[in-house]
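Exercise 7. Given the encoded structure of a 506-residue chain, write a plausible sequence.
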């Protein structure tokens, strides 16, 4: 078992957590297995000293699509691979593509030995200053708002469809408006599939995967740690390894901050229009009194007078009755980014060699920038650098954030600081198993190009289907040899279960 940790003082910024490592064989090799569930994260890291496995770490378990039957072969391989036991389970953040595997097959995790679990400080129900509880409350409100907005928009779209189908001499304009409305609704449903429980009566509630794994851990009485930026953790079984906690940020401005395209993050493949949001409008949808009207009540036209204003059907398009519902897109994106920026982001360092593995969850730019603002790490890196910059300079493995999207990897404060000649990367993107609306943004072509260059082709994408500049065109991963790279399939060869990369000298 890991050594004990002193409780952090009751401050917003926790002091580093330091542990005394017992004398033992140092870790010198790590195998990183990416399960190919589909677009979503499920990783197992095995740390070795010589031929002896010393420590097994699992990070997340989810996929954006698929039911229990689709998950089953992957879960069966996982149980066998870890011998039904993990030393550490890390849950990065509450999105379905990272946690719904715990809900698909809870029996597997009920039977599995889990010695310790780590969450971000944002999940701490006993956060001493109440910030985590406040964020969880805000997340609940945003989920309820999004669910209400989607219900209202579906009604609007259905009325629009009926009107278009029933209207005599309907125009091409009517059809275009209807098609655009359908596309917008499809996009909302895509974001909802990641952020919402998806069942009636669950508005605002925790996702099933997150709720179930927490219940399992509590019942098993597994030791749980809630980690904060700046914490440094060592464990007795993995001698010579340090875990640096980068995020999530504790300042709200970083949690909701977007990076400027072309400077902070790469430019999007396409431009997406956004509109402003008044969240209370969505929250009050089921109330008789609306509080989202942007002008005094004296200027509101009601009843028959309202109809008389629009007597001319040619002016129907001018109505703004429910145009504010289009702001649901902005709400959905904001909720998505907020939860991404609560990702537990870890840098794993070999003390002996200085090599670093980076696992940022789906942290977006606001989180990446905050890593460079951790005060206790100022001038702690090589040549007086901030420790975060130094860790990035020494990164030899990068779990690519947010499935190769433009906003999952910082530019100047991220990828451009990864200078090691040994750099390799894994990306959890499968365009055969992804919502249609994500295909226009994943992969981001500029980011993928930069990764291929910096990794010298050692970029292992879950599935290269429909990727024009796929990494294997530069480097066939099988040419690295079985001791470095391998793929695992079901016995019949029909399902690719995992891709594995081994760092032979950590």
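Solution.
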């Amino acid at each position: 078992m890991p050594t004990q940790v002193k409780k952090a003082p009751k401050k917003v910024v926790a002091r580093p957590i330091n542990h005394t490592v017992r004398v033992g064989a140092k870790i010198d090799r790590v195998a990183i297995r990416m399960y190919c569930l589909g677009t979503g994260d499920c990783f197992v890291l095995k740390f070795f000293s010589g031929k002896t496995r010393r420590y097994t770490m699992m990070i997340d378990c989810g996929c954006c699509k698929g039911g229990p039957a689709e998950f089953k072969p992957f879960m069966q391989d996982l149980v066998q691979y870890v011998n039904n036991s993990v030393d550490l389970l890390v849950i990065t953040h509450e999105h379905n593509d990272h946690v719904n595997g715990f809900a698909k097959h809870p029996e597997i995790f009920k039977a599995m030995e889990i010695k310790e679990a780590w969450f971000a400080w944002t999940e701490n129900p006993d956060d001493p200053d109440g910030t985590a509880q406040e964020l969880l409350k805000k997340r609940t409100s945003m989920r309820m708002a999004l669910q209400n907005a989607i219900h209202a928009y579906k009604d609007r779209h259905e009325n629009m469809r009926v009107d278009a189908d029933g209207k005599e001499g309907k125009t091409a304009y009517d059809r275009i408006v209807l098609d655009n409305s359908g596309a917008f609704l499809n996009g909302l449903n895509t974001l909802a599939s990641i952020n919402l429980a998806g069942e009636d009566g669950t508005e605002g509630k925790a996702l099933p995967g997150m709720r179930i794994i927490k219940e399992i851990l509590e019942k098993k009485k597994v030791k749980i740690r809630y980690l904060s930026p700046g914490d440094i953790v060592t464990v007795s079984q993995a001698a010579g390894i340090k875990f640096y906690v980068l995020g999530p940020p504790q300042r709200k401005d970083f949690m909701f901050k977007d990076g400027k395209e072309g400077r902070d993050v790469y430019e999007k493949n396409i431009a997406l229009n956004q509109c402003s949001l008044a969240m209370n409008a969505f929250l009050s949808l089921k109330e008789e009194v609306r509080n989202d009207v942007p002008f005094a009540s004296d200027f509101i036209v009601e009843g028959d007078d309202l109809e008389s204003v629009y007597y001319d059907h040619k002016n129907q398009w001018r109505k703004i009755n429910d145009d504010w519902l289009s702001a649901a897109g902005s709400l959905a994106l904001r909720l998505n980014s907020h939860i991404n920026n609560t990702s537990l982001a870890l840098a794993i360092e070999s003390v002996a060699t200085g090599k670093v593995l980076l696992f940022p969850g789906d942290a977006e730019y606001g989180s990446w920038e905050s890593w460079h603002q951790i005060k206790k790490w100022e001038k702690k890196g090589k040549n007086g650098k901030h420790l975060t910059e130094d860790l990035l300079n020494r990164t030899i493995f990068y779990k690519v954030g947010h499935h190769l999207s433009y906003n999952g990897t910082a530019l100047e404060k991220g990828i451009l600081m990864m200078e090691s000649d040994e750099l390799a990367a894994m990306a959890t993107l499968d365009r055969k198993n992804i919502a249609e609306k994500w295909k226009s943004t994943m992969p981001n072509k500029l980011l993928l190009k930069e990764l291929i260059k910096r990794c010298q082709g050692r970029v292992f994408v879950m599935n290269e289907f429909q990727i024009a500049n796929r990494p294997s065109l530069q480097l066939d991963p099988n040419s690295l040899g079985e001791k470095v790279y391998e793929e695992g399939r079901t016995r019949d060869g029909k399902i690719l279960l995992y891709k594995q990369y081994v760092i032979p000298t950590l």
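Remark. DSSP finds 14 helices and 17 strands in the chain. Students should compare their own answers with the one above.
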